[in-house]
Design a protein that fits this description.
This protein is an alpha/beta fold. It has helices spanning about 1-15, 25-40, 55-65, 90-120, 140-160, 180, 195-210, 220-225, 230-245; strands spanning about 20, 45, 70-75, 120-125, 165-170, 215. Helix content is about 50%, strand content about 10%. Bound molecules: NADP nicotinamide-adenine-dinucleotide phosphate.
């Protein structure tokens, strides 16, 4: 769904074969069928719950069984919880860390070596503007996205000269079911909410230019840059104000 689906549509349009991963088998099958017919590409469906610690390994094995040589990995699945840190149900707490942190790092760790061996490949890690600072009301989520950004930055440098590229995409607010799933009332958000296509377009442009971090919109860029001009306390309070988790 959401941003991941937009990536799948774009890559299918460009003639790339795909492996789609999520929990909702029916939605994945419907999308796969549509993309096969519309674009003539091969689409494999891998139904996995990334909050299961062994799921990344199973996805890697699935690709091996299907002889799918992964040239481009998009770590996009992610979730949030809107509210005070001390109120996060423990199940949700673990799910957020498992999907946003462990699965992203583990899938990267699994697919990277063969890309390096082939001297080509790309990884797009979907972080967030929220990962630039702690966001009050989205504390755990913003911390997981900071993890993705710092991991990606380190790998970007490690991978220099290998032929493999890695980028962290840092969208602001994007129109998907993400907020509803997190219990975050999108009507309260005090910044424009963009479409998913903007993220995909910016990610592919940034990947081509071998950028480290990509901020999809002008406002995202201004907010990221302006962090250098004000105190950390103000940055954090403003992030909370824009996200407006409590209205
Ligand atoms: N929307 C925004 O404003 C925004 C802003 C910045 C960054 N992001 C990031 O963008 C990424 C995509 O978010 P989105 O806006 O596209 O949200 P979305 O519409 O809710 O889509 C999330 C996707 O992740 C999958 N997913 C969630 N939990 C999973 C699990 N346990 N196992 C496997 N797949 C799982 C979902 O599929 P199933 O439910 O079928 O598993 C769904 O396809 C996330 O990493 C998010 O943090 C979003």
């Amino acid at each position: 769904m959401g941003i991941g689906e937009a990536f799948a549509r774009e890559f299918a349009c460009k003639g790339h074969n795909l492996v789609l991963v999520a929990r909702s088998g029916d939605k994945l099958q419907a999308l796969a069928e549509e993309l096969r017919h519309a674009s003539g590409v091969e689409v494999e469906v891998c139904i996995e719950d990334l909050s299961d610690v062994d799921s990344s390994g199973r996805i890697y094995e699935f690709c091996g069984r299907k002889h799918a040589c992964v040239d481009l990995l998009v770590n996009c699945a992610g979730l949030s919880y809107a509210g005070d840190f001390s109120d996060i149900p423990f199940e949700k707490f673990e799910e957020i860390i498992m999907v946003n942190v462990i699965a992203t790092a583990k899938l990267t760790r699994l697919f990277l070596p063969s890309m390096v061996a082939r001297k080509q490949g790309s990884i797009i890690n979907i972080a967030s503007l929220g990962g630039l600072q702690g966001v009050p009301g989205l504390g755990l989520y913003s911390a997981t996205k900071s993890f993705i950004m710092t991991l990606t930055e380190a790998l970007h440098e490690e991978l220099k000269g290998t032929g493999v590229k890695i980028v962290a995409v840092c969208p602001g607010f994007i129109n998907t079911s993400f907020f509803k799933n997190a219990g975050h009332d999108a009507a309260n958000i005090r910044l424009p909410i963009s479409g998913t296509d903007i993220v995909v377009k910016a990610a592919l442009k940034g990947l081509k230019k071998n950028r480290i971090r990509i901020f999809p919109t002008l406002i995202d860029n201004i907010l990221a840059f302006s962090q250098r001009l004000v105190s950390r306390g103000i940055v954090i309070r403003l992030a909370g104000f824009f996200a407006a988790v409590k209205g």
